[in-house]
Amino acid sequence: MKVAAIVGSIRQESFNGKLVEYMQDRYSDIMDIDILDIRDLPHYDQDEESNAPDYVKEYKRSVREADAVLIATPEYNGSISGVLKNALDWNSRVDYDFAGKPTMLVGASLGGLGTVKAQMHLRQILSAPGMSAKVLPGNEVLIGAVHEKMDEDGNLTDQGTIDFLDNVVAEFERFYQETRAVANRA
Ligand SMILES: Cc1cc2nc3c(=O)[nH]c(=O)nc-3n(C[C@H](O)[C@H](O)[C@H](O)COP(=O)(O)O)c2cc1C
User: Fold this and answer.
1) What is 2-185's CATH number?
2) Per-10-residue mean pLDDT for the chain, 186 residues long?
3) What pLDDT score was predicted for residue 123?
4) Record's family (predicted)?
5) Quick one: DSSP state of residue 137?
């Protein structure tokens, strides 16, 4: 499964970025994860959407051409980060890059609730008409107190979290195959 990954934090030592790199390595037999760089996307501008800069077009194409999308979100003030929302707004117009796209969410935060508020907003955004993503139901990967569950190299160290993530990835693989089978029948 060719997976485009979007990380909602652009800081160098991002736990969410490290989590996606960890998944890239651990699940390489299931998912070929390509991490998209959203740092240099310009602010979404409706005046520009039909003639977007090449960088935006390339980002949008990467999402469209992937079999599935993985989004790792931090929680900023009870929601997703501005950079992530900006990237998704570009996706939501012209070509509707997420339409029907199997999508898996993960999130890591320092707080105990592990991005639950951000992920609730994210699910709402992904169900907007311009997005219409096929988000894996349930299977909420909420990694709270992530600084206590990851080592300096970005490896998860908490066995319960690893086992849960293994299960969710297996579930996502099944979800992806089902979605594909339904699309082939249509
Ligand atoms: C602007 C800002 C707002 C934040 N708001 C929240 C929040 O609402 N809930 C929470 O659990 N953590 C919050 N945090 C702490 C983040 O969980 C923490 O910075 C985390 O490391 C961000 O993810 P990252 O490591 O991928 O950058 C906030 C951090 C920043 C910088």
Assistant:
1) 3.40.50.360
2) 98 98 98 97 98 97 98 98 98 98 98 96 98 97 98 97 98 95 81
3) 98
4) Belongs to the azoreductase type 2 family.
5) P
Provide the terminal-to-terminal Cα distance of the chain, rounded to the nearest Å: 21
Beta-strand runs (E) in 13-169: 32-36, 68-73, 102-108, 134-135, 141-143
Instruction: Work out which ligand 1 atom sits closest to the CA atom of 15.
Output: 25
For atom 30 of ligand 1, the residue with the nearest CA is 76
Strand partners, 5: 35, 70
pLDDT tens across 43-76, in order?
Answer: 999 999 999 999 999 999 999 999 999 999 999 9
Q: Alpha-carbon distance 169 to 104, whole Å? A: 9
Residue 140: per-residue pLDDT: 96
Residue 111 Cα to ligand 1 middle (Å): 8
Using the mean position of ligand 1's atoms as its centre, give its distance from the Cα of residue 150 in Å: 16
Distance CA 21, CA 142 (A): 17
Indicate the top mutation candidate among 73, 109, 150 to test ligand 1's pocket, ranked by most ligand atoms within 8 A of CB: 109
